[in-house]
Automatic annotation (TrEMBL), chain A:
Belongs to the ABC transporter superfamily. The keyword Transport applies. Residues 24-266 form the ABC transporter domain. Keywords: ATP-binding, Nucleotide-binding, Phosphate transport, Transport. This is Phosphate ABC transporter ATP-binding protein PstB. The keyword Nucleotide-binding applies. InterPro entries: AAA+_ATPase, ABC_transporter-like_ATP-bd, ABC_transporter-like_CS, P-loop_NTPase, PstB-like. NCBIfam families: 3a0107s01c2.
TrEMBL record, chain B:
It holds the Pfam family BPD_transp_1. Belongs to the binding-protein-dependent transport system permease family. CysTW subfamily. This is Phosphate transport system permease protein PstA. It is a multi-pass membrane protein. PROSITE patterns: ABC_TM1. Keywords: Cell membrane, Membrane, Transmembrane, Transmembrane helix, Transport.
Length: 271, 442
């Protein structure tokens, strides 16, 4: 693969890190499911070209927060979001913001691999097609190839692009879903426990992929695995009972957290 | 099993002592399972038995309906009988109103050697000929008046009673004056069979003829065409309306008290007795909208109303069965709600929708009660050209034939049931094939 050298990537990223720019800013975000409140005034900013991991015990609201970032919560009946979330300078809950356009800018990868029951090619081509991103068949072929390469799947599937996407193994399916999300060229990619249904080898591949995607995308990942958060992310946010407990550099978070609850959770004392 | 012999090597391994065996009720559990399987098999055997009885009864009574006795003899189209005064050049009605049964009677009498002045004999001969020769011969003569005065070999229908006797359906041990066919006629019948003049032919009339009070000439033509029109109307109306309603309710409509009410109502409508739909159709389509009575259009509309709840329920179930992850995937890519539904959800729900639709159609095809109320239980002799013409339907035709007194209608009733069952089987096979064709795994 014609990737930048590892050193060059790190250098570019360090430069970015030094003058911090926030891709998404969440201010006083609260979420209600009917009467039940799931998030309490969360203030969390997502840095550009950074992998931000959201950790915390089950039911702590980390997935809920993730889903507010591309308004997937809109599809749940009785779900209400208050507070402000911006993408660059746009308030994504502004009535003038089109949710379809938002989701083209903020893509999502789900917990369980969910390829469409269509061919591998069609899976990747679907997003660009509905958004009219390809002018011609050859354009589309190029987008599909590039996306599959970015997802590290090209070499495995290039000879069977027109076979069913559901015939792939679990790890390949998840990378196909990542390729599908990447094909739309979003600015942010949200990942909701993307490796929880995968075996360790497939997990390692997806983590490596996340690491590479960071050069082009801002990534927010929900994970149950401390080790995974430590391996893939630069920033980590810890949620507990609907509150944001702590948000910090991943290194600091796992060595010397500011909050006792983070310490306890990371040490495995609860959750 | 017998006791395991402990080999010396195992003893040296220090195998732990076997604990006392616990009674975990295995015998009871297996007995319960065996009992349940027996019940299941008995239930299936019971069901199969009744299915077999039904089919046996229908087929054994009905298979003869697909054959019809016909008489093939030389017939003299005598000018003396058809057009005694030679007026056909001036009076075109003459050839239409001529007394053709006499032509057939004379021909048969000649073959059987009955004298022309034997009035009783001629009457008995007449009783062996179907009155449908009137139209058959008329059509021949009108199409080609040159055959008048010539002798042609013609095949025509035997009388229904002769047909029944020939098929052995009339008990000849009954006293002669208590049965429909006399000893003399039976004797003639045997003569005709021996000479090859009376034989059984495939009964095309059963499929193309309209209603007739003479069983040998009665057919399902009108009913088949009427049912076909109605099925087309039901399909064209109820599939799009039902699918659109279900998609809206399932994917777009807000979940509130009003949509709950609609849902409950749809479920209840599926259980409304069909005769109520017939009354509704009579009031709305015939009395209010002024559509013609007995028309396939009205029948189709009534059956559409009846089928809609079935299709809506089946479609909603099919839509519900599509995994939510597919919807999330499409929405997460930025597909609009409508694109999500039409690109992903609907194709995956298609097998279920089609199965539900065909089962709904099959149900509508066999429905009788509402059609009785809108006047489709009628004597219709001519095949309807459009859905606005009077017609009947297959199940209604069965109902009407079942009410007829003649022996020959018994086999026709069963024959019509067989035709209806074949239609239903074909539709179900269609449903299975469509399901296979559209089924996709995820």
């Amino acid at each position: 693969m014609n990737m930048m050298s590892e050193a060059a990537v790190e250098k570019a990223l360090d430069k970015k890190m030094n003058d911090i720019s926030y891709k998404m800013i969440g201010k006083d975000v609260s979420v209600y499911y009917g009467e039940k409140r799931a998030l309490y005034d969360v203030n969390l900013n997502v840095r550009e070209n950074t992998v931000t991991a959201l950790i915390g015990p089950s039911g702590c609201g980390k997935s809920t927060f993730l889903r507010t970032l591309n308004r997937m919560n809109d599809t749940i009946d009785g779900c209400r979001v208050t507070g402000r979330i911006t993408l660059d300078t746009d308030d994504i809950y502004d009535p003038n913001i089109d949710v379809v356009e938002l989701r083209a800018r903020v893509g999502m990868v789900f917990q369980k691999p969910n390829p469409f029951p269509k061919s591998i090619y069609e899976n990747v081509a679907y997003g660009p097609r509905i958004h009219g991103l390809a002018k011609s068949k050859s354009d589309m072929d190029a987008i599909v190839e590039k996306s599959l390469q970015k997802a590290g799947l090209w070499n495995e599937v290039k000879d069977r692009l027109h076979e069913g996407g559901t015939g792939l193994s679990g790890g390949q399916q998840q990378r196909l879903c990542i390729a599908r999300a990447v094909a739309v060229s979003p600015e942010v990619i949200l990942m909701d426990e993307p490796c929880s249904a995968l075996d360790p080898i497939a997990t390692a591949k997806v983590e490596e992929l996340i690491h590479e995607l960071r050069a082009n995308f801002t990534i927010v990942i929900v994970t149950h695995s401390m080790q995974q958060a430590a391996r893939v992310s630069q920033r980590t946010a810890m949620f507990h009972l609907g509150n944001l407990v702590e948000e910090n550099d991943t290194d600091k978070m796992f060595t010397n957290p500011d909050d006792q609850r983070t310490q306890d959770y990371i040490m495995g004392r609860f959750g | 099993m017998s006791q395991v012999s402990t080999s010396p090597s195992m003893a040296t391994l220090g195998v732990s002592a076997k604990p006392e065996r616990r009674d975990i009720g295995l015998r009871r559990r297996y007995a319960a399972e065996r009992r349940f399987r027996l019940f299941g098999m008995a239930a299936i055997a019971f069901g199969l038995l009744f299915l077999f009885l039904l089919l046996f009864s229908v087929v054994s009574k009905g298979y003869t309906a697909f054959q019809q006795s016909m008489i093939t003899i030389p017939v003299e189209f005598s000018e003396q009988v058809i057009d005694k005064n030679n007026e056909r050049a001036t009076n075109p009605q003459k050839l239409v109103s001529a007394n053709y049964p006499v032509v057939a009677r004379n021909a048969l009498a000649k073959v059987l050697g009955v004298a022309e002045d034997d009035r009783a004999g001629l009457k008995a001969v007449n009783g062996m000929i179907s009155d449908s020769v009137r139209t058959q011969f008329r059509d021949m003569v009108v199409a080609n008046p040159a055959i008048i005065g010539t002798t042609q070999t013609v095949t025509f229908l035997a009388h229904g009673d002769l047909d029944s006797a020939f098929k052995g359906q009339i008990d000849l041990s009954v006293a002669e004056n208590n049965r429909k066919i006399s000893d003399k006629q039976v004797g003639w019948m045997n003569t005709l069979v021996e000479s090859g003049a009376l034989s059984k032919h495939f009964n095309t009339g059963l499929f193309v003829n309209g209603a007739s009070s003479r069983p040998e000439a009665a057919g399902l033509g009108v009913a088949v065409v009427g049912s076909l029109y109605m099925m087309l109307i039901v399909l064209v109306l109820s599939l799009p309306i039902g699918v659109a309603a279900s998609i809206y309710l399932e994917e777009f409509a807000p979940k509130n008290r009003f949509t709950d009410l609609i849902e409950v109502n749809i479920n209840n409508l599926a259980a409304v007795p069909s005769i109520v739909y017939g009354l509704l159709g009579l009031a709305v389509f015939v009395n209010f909208a002024g559509f013609p009575r007995s028309a396939a259009l009205v029948g189709g509309l009534v059956l559409t109303l009846m089928t809609l709840p079935t299709i809506i329920i089946a479609t909603r179930a099919a839509l519900k069965a599509v995994p939510p992850s597919i919807r999330s995937a499409a929405l997460g890519l930025g597909a609009s709600k409508m694109q999500t539904v039409f690109h992903h959800v609907l194709p995956l729900a298609m097998p279920g929708i089609l199965t539900g639709t065909i089962i709904g159609l099959a149900h509508a095809l066999g429905e009788t009660a509402p059609l009785l109320l809108i006047g489709m239980v009628a004597f219709v002799a001519d095949i309807p050209g459009t859905p606005l013409d009077p017609s009947t339907a297959l199940p209604v035709q069965i109902y009407m034939w079942a009410n007829e007194a003649e022996r020959a209608f018994v086999e026709r009733t069963s024959g019509a049931i067989m035709v209806l069952l074949i239609f239903l089987i074909l539709m179900n096979v269609g449903a299975i094939l469509l399901r296979r064709r559209f089924e996709r795994r995820w």
